[in-house]
Amino acid sequence: MASKLDLAAPDLARIVAEVAAEVQPHRGEGHVADYIPALARVDGKRFGLAVITVDGETAEAGDAWMPFSIQSISKVFTLTLALQRLGDELWKRVGREPSGSRFNSIVQLEAEHGIPRNPFINAGAIVVTDALMEGRPPMEVVTDIRDNLRRFADNATIDVDKEVASSEAATGFRNYSLANFMRGFDNLKSPVEDTLTAYFHQCSLRITCRQLARAGLFLANGGKDPISGEQIISPEHARRICAVMMTCGHYDASGEFAFQVGLPGKSGVGGGILAVVPGKAAIGVWSPGLNESGTSQVGALALEKLAAKTGWSVF
Ligand code: GLU
Fold this sequence. Notes:
It is a single chain. By secondary structure, the protein is α+β, with helices and mostly antiparallel strands. The protein is globular. Helices cover 45% and strands 12% of the residues. The protein folds into two domains: 9-68 and 208-310, DD-peptidase/beta-lactamase superfamily (Beta-lactamase, 3-Layer(aba) Sandwich); 72-202, DD-peptidase/beta-lactamase superfamily (Beta-lactamase), CATH 3.40.710. The strands form three sheets. Strands 3-2-9-8-7 form a five-stranded antiparallel sheet. A three-stranded antiparallel sheet has the order 4-6-5. A two-stranded antiparallel ribbon has the order 1-10. It has helices at 9-23, 37-40, 74-86, 107-111, 122-133, 138-153, 162-171, 173-184, 192-203, 209-216, 235-248, 254-260, 297-310, and strands spanning 31-32, 48-53, 58-62, 68-69, 159-160, 205-207, 265-267, 272-277, 281-286, 289-290. It contains 13 helices and ten strands.
């Protein structure tokens, strides 16, 4: 079968190995998130990279098999579920403009009457999770989100790290204030405590680079999982999720990521990044040290090198 990639499988394997070798001297750069103990004790020198193509080819390097905390990358998958279930109605409650602000900023929310700028800042992601609640108990929603992630990743072992979830709840004061604020503007339907329980647990799912790339593959293929054949979301919604990833996936450093890498991506403070190459592939990368904006420093460097070597930037 002819590849859609203009890149033969041995070339992809060679490029992934080259990228891993080139970032080797940078391992340990950046600052590991230390707001909760379970993240602070992760070895900052870890690095994993996994690529899966729409043809089903895979290439991996480093700690691609090692689970890490998904954190904000989960926002891509809850957005997928909310768009699938609510359709464009969702956009009445959350915008799709870059915020230019920190991930947990409250100032903008006040000026904009409780409608968060986009689904990837914390306020926006909390609204998206709230949209999935539908009156259900929070742990039922967590199971729903987890099971869908398992389905997207084709892996039944993905689960919540309970220690991370309870630490998130114990330290999430800003998230409580964002949620209460939005409840005050009537943009949160469930009780704050319930929506945040679901949100903290979704951020606490553990995933590997390999599973992350696999879970995001439908976004590279017009919303259809090219391996199972399942249409997970419509092509229009897949295109829009990728657009929001490109413009808002890295908080106030989204412009820099588009400039350096040129791919739709979403980072999390656990050090993971999901990147999508429309029509071609999905990439999971992980290295715990973060840059000033909370994106994996070595992970972003690896993606920059990978995009340059493959010619996969969308620009
Ligand atoms: N659990 C984090 C929070 O909501 C996620 C932050 C992130 O990954 O950017 O504060």
